[in-house]
Amino acid sequence: MQRNLRYISDWANTFLTLHMEKKDILQEITPLESHDFMFVADRHKAYYDFPLHRHELFELNFVEHGAGCERIVGDNVELIADYDLVLITSPNLEHMWGQGECKSEDIHEVTIQFFIDFHKDKIFDTNPMQSVKKMFCRAERGLSFPLSAIMTVYPRLMKLSQIKEGFYAMMELFQILYELSKFDDARELSSSSFARVQTNTESRRVAKVKDYITAHYIEEIRLEQVSGMVSMSPTAFSRFFKLRTGKTLAEYIVDIRLGHAARMLVDTNEPVSQIGFSCGFNTLTNFNRLFKKRKGCSPTEFREKYAKTKVIV
Question: What is the pTM of this model?
Answer without folding.
Answer: 0.72
